[in-house]
Amino acid sequence: MPLNIMFKAVYLIINFCVSLPPMKKKRIFIPIILLLSIASVWGQQPRLMLSNTEKKGAEKGSLDKAKQEPKDTTEAIYVWRVNETTGERIQAIRDSIRYNFQQTTIPDGHSVAIGYLGNVGSPSFSKLFSENPYERTFYFWNLLDPYYKNPGKQLFYNTKIPYSNLYYQTGGSQYTKEERLKGEITSNFGKNFNLGFNIDYIYSRGSYQFLSNKSLNYNLFASYIKDRYEMHAWGGNYSFLNSENGGMRNDLFITSPNSKDLPNTTYTSTDLPVRMNLTWNRVRGRQLFFTNRYHLGYYSKEKKHINNKDTVVDTFVPVASFIFTSQYTHQYRRFNSYDSAFVDAKHTIRALDTLYTEKHYDRPVNDLTTLTEWKNTFGLSMREGFRDWVKFGLTAYIQHTTRRFSLPNSTENQFDKHFQNSVAVGGVLSKTSGKLLKYDLDAELSVAGYDFGQFKANAKLQTSVNIAGKEASLTATGYIKNLKANFLESNVQSKYFLWNKDMHDIRRVFAGGEIDLPQTGTRFSLGIENVQNYQYFNANKTIDQYSGSVQVLSARLDQKLSAGILHWDNQLVHQTTTNQSVIPVPQFSAYTNLYILTKLAKVLTIQAGVDTHFHTAYYAPGYEPALMAFYNQQDVKVGGFPMSTLYVNAHLKKTRFFVMYYNILKDLGNYGYFSLPHYPTNPFMFKWGLSWDFNN
């Protein structure tokens, strides 16, 4: 099947599937994607590789190197990401890890400690303060960060042969099943142009009533790389539907299932009473991204060893680049409910209304908030290394942003509009070559419009030293930020919550360092952050701001130990905060993984073991569905329970496979397997998954 026909077929099929009713959509959608991914193998034809000049360019970029396995140099597949502001290519590594595959498939695997509603695809946040995204204008995406795709997360490819990957995972019974299907297809058309498509589909019924998740995200991406011109394009569509149950009505069903205060009956997790039903949060959006870089430079003669002989070739040396980047985003979030309760033969009440003290309109809740944003950036860059004495690269840019917010008011089908314009200038100073010192310094200042006075400066320095014949890396990071308060958090207009507040700028200062010792499998990091005017949702579920300063100190140790085929990996994190009621964090968090790793018949890699996530008890944030936000509370502690899985991973050539028993300690001790107040994680569950590459 020619790939251009296959891409067109995928596009038509996706649009057809999206228009189907929900039940038919699932039955038809998964088999079609399976067939398309397998069919792509038959159309694979050899393609041209990157030239040496282009390969060198693909390696340049950020100092942020992915901490995964080294790139498989036997494959003619080169990958990178792009900076969403400057279009600079950033070195990246394709996901091809051969062990711990099972951890990438569950919400717990996104962090050492994470809070979420219970199943795959649900809103979540990291319990490690430094890992949480904060600066998104449409803050609802912060809760869906592990599943939210944007141009900065996209891998761009240059391939010698077409590449595709199919990933599928499932678990649970017929009534609690969780399924996730991901697919990616990409191919070069000539040596300069690459086109790709990927899709991510989640259908999770959930182990508790009215807690299902469904999402469909797909995007097209393309790149065109030549000596004088680079182009990257990305277009995505994403849709998340989260059913909300408001948490357990009575935690005793989990913490004390044999309590005398509970009915003396047999029940399963799907029988437990919850606070809401027939209530949903929908978050949808579409995004277009286009970046161009035109290079000024010259060609020089360079001797290279090609086909066992020395050859003189012309090599392009870029001196400066003109940059234009444009990004369009439209996003919306809707909260609605058909939750009603029977009173008598003639009357029903809106049961959801009884959970809230304020009601700002009488009709059934149907809150819709939208954001449309258009951002354009013009820049000029001087390239690193075009002369021996030019040891750094320098970029300057100006950026214009326009936004339109739409908030519901008390009149049916009427909305309040808010418009913002902002102009910012920024620059990047970087050095990405050499071993003695690498650095990446960037700063941005808003000089006009709504964001006037907002300032962000980030710094990263890296060096390496030789210890016992191996390189150990030392990294220092820091930032200073003066940020405008989030508009959608400061201005809430809905049925149950209403406020419009003027908030002060938020000031954040961070300094930290890391040392990585491959000789001993040790990585240690330490960081401290000072936050002033921190913005958060308080115990009354309204926006609040702490005018003082809060310091958060974090120390992390990653240690790998091994003896033959026996391995023991550990991640230990200690956090302290000067004000737990403003920024609550668990004092100690840990992930430990004990396993055997061996090969059978020299081709099949087997990993079998048990791993555990654990953190000390603390007043973890609660979750409010009507706001789709996490709020601080001081009533219920969460933690002190080991979330353990028993697993087997297998890797054979281009195929990865795992089986897992999730939450094997469910019936241990205090039964406290809560991730958030009133939100238990899934009970004991069997899961399996498969990832299959087609690139031969």
Query: What helical percentage do the residues reach?
Result: under 10%
Mean pLDDT: 86
At CATH level 2, the architecture is Beta Barrel
Rg over CA atoms: 26 Å
CATH topology: the name is Maltoporin, Chain A
Number of helices: 5
**CATH evolutionary superfamily:** TonB-dependent receptor, beta-barrel domain
Task: Please describe the structure with a list of short key phrases separated by commas or semicolons.
22-stranded antiparallel beta barrel, mainly beta, 35 strands, Maltoporin, Chain A, 696 residues, globular
Topology summary:
Blueprint: H1 3-18, H2 22-39, H3 52-59, E1 77-82, E2 89-91, E3 114-116, E4 124-126, E5 156-159, E6 163-171, E7 178-189, E8 193-204, E9 213-225, E10 229-243, H4 252-255, E11 279-306, E12 309-337, E13 341-344, E14 347-349, E15 366-382, E16 393-408, E17 415-431, E18 438-449, E19 455-467, E20 470-483, H5 487-490, E21 491-493, E22 498-500, E23 506-517, E24 522-537, E25 543-563, E26 566-577, E27 588-600, E28 604-615, E29 622-624, E30 629-631, E31 643-652, E32 655-662, E33 674-676, E34 679-680, E35 685-694
Antiparallel strand pairs: 1-2, 1-5, 3-4, 6-7, 6-35, 7-8, 8-9, 9-10, 10-11, 11-12, 12-15, 13-14, 15-16, 16-17, 17-18, 18-19, 19-20, 20-23, 21-22, 23-24, 24-25, 25-26, 26-27, 27-28, 28-31, 29-30, 31-32, 32-35, 33-34
Helix pairs in contact: 1-2
